[in-house]
Design brief:
The protein is mainly alpha-helical. Among the domains are: about 90 residues; about 90 residues, no CATH class. It has 23 helices and no strands. α3 runs parallel beside α17, α11 packs antiparallel against α23 and α17 runs parallel beside α20. The chain is globular. It starts with a helix and ends with a helix.
Length: about 525
């Protein structure tokens, strides 16, 4: 009977997951079709109706309207919309092709490339999974439901500081599912509750997703939208925020956010059981399958360590020696983040895996590198296209004067006149837009608008610009808000009502922490 009960429970969970995925697909289909029609309509209306703007501003506003609608609705792939948008800028005469396409020579492009290649090597050689299982195997962690949730959250936060939130969740999600299944099977055998649809499993899944979304904020390379937003802020303000300054600014904020996240999820989804029987055996089995620490993992650690040293060297040099010291000046001029990322990533193609001997005992003519080009090209190239498009639109907004026009107009209508009120507005705008579209698109939409508003009301644009960038990574209420949300929602363990409730509460508290944290920390860090 108990076997039949477990089979029935598993079937119910599978059916629930399938039903939620079907609803999600229908929503995405309707959203996409509506956006596909509204985008060209908005483009035409702006061209016809915005007669008060000079042609370059009017044409750019029309392109921006089309791009924003298609990004929000995801009518076509985001990267395709990005390419189309910059091509339209040339076609309708916003700027010439050399000006428009020059954004793809930006240093941040190479920071993306190098970071993505290193993250790819971690995945190929299983280094990220080994780290996660090692943390879970620490004494007593997975015996306690509370400690398990917190441990998964801590891993999600720390890993996503260096690789994308989607990759982080894709790695932790199967481990979490496996633990839930192992523990649930033992629980039902002993006459206890089926934990597949429990409050504890909901908290675990949401912690994996939300932790990855907030953890990326620790470093500028933790999420693509942060590099996009930072680049836009730096371009429009003339102020450079290096790797160390970013970490000093946001790491304490993320620490407070993580503590708040643990309290919120465990309070709203209080675990039904006090002990997780079988979880330790499952983790031990998974670690045994990994085998010994390999050469590929060791080489990836070398490349990653090199990247961190090179990224932080200019900032640490400034703190220790001062900005005017000769070596520090040289590093700021020549050891950019893009250069550092490519140097570190190149190591993966130079360091060989363990070599063997060929026929007759002869050493093989060529040993395989840690990462092959065939493996490296599987990185997310679409994000790079999104970055280039966001940079183009942001630059053209300033060059054509559209940013100043929008900033002055919005400042007058919204009545914002202080740093605090504008920073709150930036956070709310980034949050609301990120609930319905990708984080990268959100940063590209919000930052070019917020910074000119700050300039129009004569306040420091750096703080609201950084807050808008960070808030673009929020979006905790809906499955469509972020890929991590969609992944855990598809498990069938996260009812929509619980995601809405938990996400709404954390949105409010998270925005408050973000705004207060940046306003307090920015002067201390010197940003």
């Amino acid at each position: 009977m108990k076997t039949e009960d477990r089979t029935g429970a598993a079937a119910s969970t599978s059916a629930a997951a399938s039903h939620t995925v079907d609803r999600q697909e229908r929503f995405d289909l309707i959203r996409g079709r509506l956006g596909l029609a509204l985008g060209p309509l908005a483009f035409a209306l702006v061209l016809v109706c915005a007669q008060g703007l000079v042609w370059e501003q009017r044409a750019l506003a029309a392109v921006l309207s089309l791009v924003v609608i298609w990004w929000v609705s995801e009518a076509i792939p985001l990267a395709v919309t990005a390419i189309l948008g910059i091509v339209l800028c040339v076609l309708v005469g916003v700027a010439d092709e050399d000006t428009v396409f020059s954004a793809f020579g930006n240093d941040t492009i190479f920071t993306f490339l190098g970071g993505f290649v290193i993250a790819r090597s971690m995945t190929v050689h299983g280094l990220d999974r080994r780290i996660a299982l090692r943390v879970l195997s620490l004494g007593g962690v997975v015996r306690s439901p509370t400690r398990t949730v917190v441990a998964f959250g801590a891993m999600s936060v720390l890993i996503s500081a260096f690789i994308s939130n989607t990759a982080t969740v894709a790695m932790l999600f199967p481990i979490g599912i496996g633990i839930v299944r192992a523990v649930s099977a033992i629980s039902t055998e002993k006459g206890g509750p089926d934990l597949h649809g429990s409050r504890w499993s909901t908290a675990l899944m949401l912690m994996i997703a939300y932790g990855a979304s907030i953890g990326g904020l620790i470093t500028p390379i933790g999420a693509p939208h942060q590099l996009i937003g930072r680049d836009l802020v730096e371009e429009q303000t003339g102020k450079t925020i290096n790797f160390v300054e970013w970490v000093l600014l946001f790491a304490p904020i993320v620490l407070v956010m993580f503590a708040a996240l643990c309290l919120i999820l465990l309070r709203l989804n209080r675990p039904e059981v006090r002990e997780l029987s079988g979880a330790e055996a499952y983790v031990a089995g998974q670690r045994a399958e990994l085998g010994p620490f390999g050469r590929g993992e060791a080489n990836t650690c070398v490349a990653f360590a090199l990247a961190v040293v090179l990224w932080t060297a200019p900032g640490i040099g400034s703190l220790v020696l001062g900005d005017d010291a000769g070596p520090v000046t040289w590093m700021h001029d020549h050891l950019t983040e893009g250069v550092a990322a490519i140097l570190a990533a190149s190591v993966l193609f130079l360091l060989p895996l363990a070599g063997g001997r060929g026929a007759g005992g002869r050493r093989a003519a060529r040993r395989a590198p840690t990462l092959t080009w065939a493996e490296a090209v599987k990185i997310d190239w679409g994000v790079i296209l999104l970055f280039g498009a966001g940079t183009v639109i942001g630059s053209l907004s300033s060059e054509t004067g559209l940013a100043d026009t929008l900033g002055t107009s919005l400042a007058d209508h919204l009545g914002v006149s202080s740093l605090v009120s504008l920073t709150v507005l930036a956070a709310v705008a980034g949050l609301v837009i990120s609930e319905t579209t990708s984080n990268t698109a959100s940063a590209g939409i919000v930052v070019p608008i917020v910074v000119p508003i700050a300039a129009a009301v004569d306040v420091n644009p750096l703080i609201p610009g950084l807050v808008a960038t960070a808030a673009a990574g929020y979006g905790f209420m809906l499955p469509v808000s972020t890929p991590p949300n969609a992944i855990v929602y598809g498990s069938g363990m996260v009812p929509m009502t619980k995601m809405l409730r938990s996400g709404f509460v954390f949105d409010l508290i998270g925005v408050a922490i973000l705004v207060a944290g940046v306003l307090v920390m920015a002067p201390l860090v010197g940003v």
